[in-house]
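Hello forum,

I keep getting stuck at the same step: I have a sequence, I want structure tokens, and every attempt I make locally crashes halfway through. Rather than fight my setup again tonight, could one of you with a working pipeline run this one for me? It's a single chain of 301 residues.
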Amino acid sequence: MKIPRFFLVLLAILTPLFAENPPEAPTPDQATLRANLQKIAEGLQYQDGEITLQGGIAKIHLPNGFRFLDPKNAEVVLSKIWGNPPGAKTLGMLVPTDISPASASAWAVILTYDEDGYVKDDDAEKIDYTKLLKEMQESTTEASKEREKQGFGSIQLIGWATPPRYDKSSHKMYWAKELKFDGSDENTLNYNIRLLGRRGVLVLNAVAGMEQLPAIQSATPTLLSMIDFQEGHRYSDFDSSSDKVATYGLAALVAGGIATKAGLFKGLFVALLAAKKFVIIGFLAVAGYLKKVFGKKTEQG
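Reply #2:
Ran it on my machine without issues. Output:
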């Protein structure tokens, strides 16, 4: 199977940046790339205050320290700054006020919505997360083998960076996984927050390197409190006589948010094999690519 042209182009850009002993001073090409990324970042249009999502299903009340990028501006960050394929469908992006998306220390929370139905939480206290992690690691290993056959780098699920926690009163859940991608010096942090609603799940995925874990852990209470479903869309508004029930529960939500008739882990396997999730590709930029372009010094703005 041929490697898509996008990956060949990305590889050509990244190869010198991931060299074992990169030069201290940027090459002319790197300097030009750095200037271009900074210029794109300076053109982003941020919002603050109250943000309404998806026609009113949820609202964000932005506190000091965070700002919002609408889907159009989020697409600019994902594709033009972080080097993802264009066309990612998001509800927008939350970014720290004091860090530019083009900074070496950039991290962001990407918002999407999965309207798969009402996710029952009656399995919340029955889940064995140690066993679940082991099964996820095995599935990731198998998917990685297939990815390598197709010319893609390997993926390894190292473990929980933050074990899953579910608040039954607010119907909010969060956890974090540590992943290792072939060719990267730094492991990725895949930090997940899920808000259960009447007809689906509001998905918040933090894209970052492992070194941003303390910052994201510190911000988690703020992230959990700033966004909520609105009346008529809340978990408590579920109507069993008319509303659809999701085909998966909390365990599947943690394992990958994918439930198919063929089975949970087959669905997870397919997702890892395809690696179409922009958060996986986006890690390459946040945890390695931008760091090589801009250096290790934290860039503000």
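The domain at 46-294 is CATH 3.40.1000.10 (Protein Transport Mog1p; Chain A). If your local run keeps crashing, start a new thread with the error log.
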